[in-house]
Amino acid sequence: MLTGNDAGAGVATNPAHRIVIVGAGFAGLGMAIRLRQAGITNFLLLERAAEVGGTWRDNTYPGCACDIPSHLYSFSFAPSADWSRHYAGQAEIQAYLLGCVLEYGLRDQLQTGADLQEAVYYEAQQEWRLTLTSGTALRAEVLILARGALSEPSIPEIPGLEKFAGPKFHSAHWDHSVDLTGKRVGVIGTGASAIQFVPQIAPLVEKLTLFQRTPAWILPKRDIALSPAWRRALRSVPLLRRAHRTYLYWSHEARAIPFVVWPWLMRFAEQRARSYLKRQVVNPTLRECLIPDYRMGCKRILLSNDFQPSLNLPSVDLVTDNIIYVTSAGVKTAGVTTGGVTKGDGVERVLDVLILATGFAAGAPTGAPRVVGRAGADLRDHRQNYLGIAVPGFPNLFLLGGPNTGLGHNSIVFMLEAQIGLVLRRLRRHGTQTDEIRADAAARFGKGLDRRMRRTVWLSGCRSWYLDAAGRNTTLWPGFSIGYWLRTRLAPARIWRGGR
Ligand code: NAP
Question: N or C: which end of the chain has fewer CB within 10 A?
Fold first, then answer.
């Protein structure tokens, strides 16, 4: 293991790059494209998997699609007029990213199967020394971490889970070799992933048992196929494509108001969701189980036209009793609890296949590399940062998709582009000097963030993956995305050490 200021004899001969980007999902690929467009070619893109794409490579479950319109959920600097639907599916988004690799000639600078284990900053040499799990060592002047916030599946700590004898997989690693036809299938979780694949598999299986811990607020998904004529028009009139993107951006941006300014406004959308549920689910007892008891938006609002109707199928059982443990044959739930009293000793539901739709470890992914800055500081122990991009004590390190840069109302690609823009401007400005955010600037930014977070819907009293163990929202930006963009544009020179 390398430590802070140890020169490490063999390392000097290892390949050196001006810039190393870690992660080739939307963030890393976007950074690489912008570097290329800026004429900067001395960079290396490391990807731990065998192919680029991040979440859009991994999540291949049936029905996987984006819930942000594709003309907005794509790079403004690498636009496509060819989206087949308003909300594209996984395969089309992955094909778009692969197309970007081809179009911008990124293959030569891409190293797949390269899993970063450790990155250590060497102050005297002003460089980052990287060790991959393969043992390969690399050096870089600038390190850009673009590892994705939702890349580590969260495996629930349910006793006995490992004992289940049948096929068992997480939705982010769908096992396509398992034929679900005629099987008794259990699904744990009713979040954004489950609501997309449950309607796809429900008609195939003999019995689908859906274990719901907390219901989600669900609104209609206004999805349409985009006609060839519309696509032709977008292709031949770039101004139309830009105008369409601008319209989509602002229509989503307006939705920030109930999230970050007046959460009480959500009650109007809750009303809409309730009537939607009433139209979609016939059984009033089942309907009751599907109405959340928290303010809409506190957890991610889900868009679906077919999830709730699929629960009407006689082959689908919604189970709201707590899971106690998993056996080799199925899942055992607690008895029915009314007024804090549990009656009966529950039921064991026998299953052939168990699917975990339990989301991602957004906070501190266990597989994260160790990143060591000045004086042995570990990145995992550092909460202070500036715009989720720069961290005091970590010179020439930039994060893409870092803390508090997610959104509940608009496209994450917009946020990534704002971050990429700031990184590019810093790279142009600092030349070969070190670049580091000042600790007082990060502290001031953190205080403002906490203050603004207090009034958001995310702290209105629900348990969600947005919050860490201490109840702090470490994932979402508590404001308008345009405000975030402005801050990345207007970040003054004095907040960087050296004032450049
Ligand atoms: P998720 O929204 O976090 O849902 C996880 C589900 O698993 C929740 O229903 C959760 O219940 C349940 N769960 C977790 N641990 C459990 C346990 N121990 N016992 C019982 N139930 C448990 O995860 P996801 O559906 O994979 O989505 C994660 C995020 O990915 C989304 O919020 C979204 O940002 C992104 N995503 C986006 C799209 C898209 O269309 N753009 C599609 C899929 C995913 P609780 O609610 O009680 O915790």
Answer: N
